[in-house]
Amino acid sequence: MSVQSVSTLNRWLTAILVAASVLSLAAVAADTPAGKSQTPPTKAQMDEMMAAWEKMATPGPQHAELMKNAGSWNAVIKSWMSPGDPVVTKGSANYKPILGGRFLMEEYKGIMMDKPFEGFGITGYDNTKKEYTNVWMDSMGTMMIFARGTMDASGKVLTMTSQWEDPVTGEVAAMRMVTTFVDASTKKFEMYGTHGGQEAKEMEITYTRAK
Fold it and tell me: SS3 for the chain, per residue?
């Protein structure tokens, strides 16, 4: 299928979704069951809904900043399994824009607990909720971890929070993840876990662009 055909198909699908939304809202407003007589939306209403939909679906400056991470990075990982000196390992990450620059996909490879480790994540920015979102999965489990958060005023520090259930103990633990964008070629990721009401740093990854 050609790029033009895909673009045309996407516009038709968007129009169908918007029309369905308008009809549903009209049905609720009129308090009439679906399928019975309803007041059809006007062209002006359709145009307004379409404009709102397109605005929500269009990548903005937050997405543009995320896409600057595209490319290959080297990583040095420090892990704290208990108090004391961390375990230090190395890895690599590759970032790729997907879905027209709406999301940033990450593929990570390294060593964790003396075993080969692979991770896969997708990060985006939700125009509607005005927040950053992330989903992460890796070879150390079968669960997906979902996180959301905000960027600070400097545009350099992204803080996200999440909860996950320990597959062994069943304990629900909170996580706080802080990514500091030091410069165009350096960034630092820090992960803090809360157990028994106490927060502790569990991981720190320093990324540098591969040359």
Answer: CCHHHHHHHHHHHHHHHHHHHHHHHHHHHHCCCCCCCCCCCCHHHHHHHHHHHHHHHCCCHHHHHHHCCCEEEEEEEEECCCCCCCEEEEEEEEEEEECCCCEEEEEEEEEECCEEEEEEEEEEEECCCCEEEEEEEECCCCCCEEEEEEECCCCCEEEEEEEEECCCCCCEEEEEEEEEEEECCEEEEEEEEEECCEEEEEEEEEEEECC
Tens of pLDDT, residues 30-41: 445 555 557 888
For the entire predicted model, the pTM comes to: 0.78
Domain extent listing, the chain: 3-57, 63-209
In this structure, CATH architecture of domain 63-209: Beta Barrel (2.40)
Q: What is the pLDDT of residues 88-139, one digit of tens each?
A: 999 999 999 999 999 999 999 999 888 999 999 999 999 999 999 999 999 9
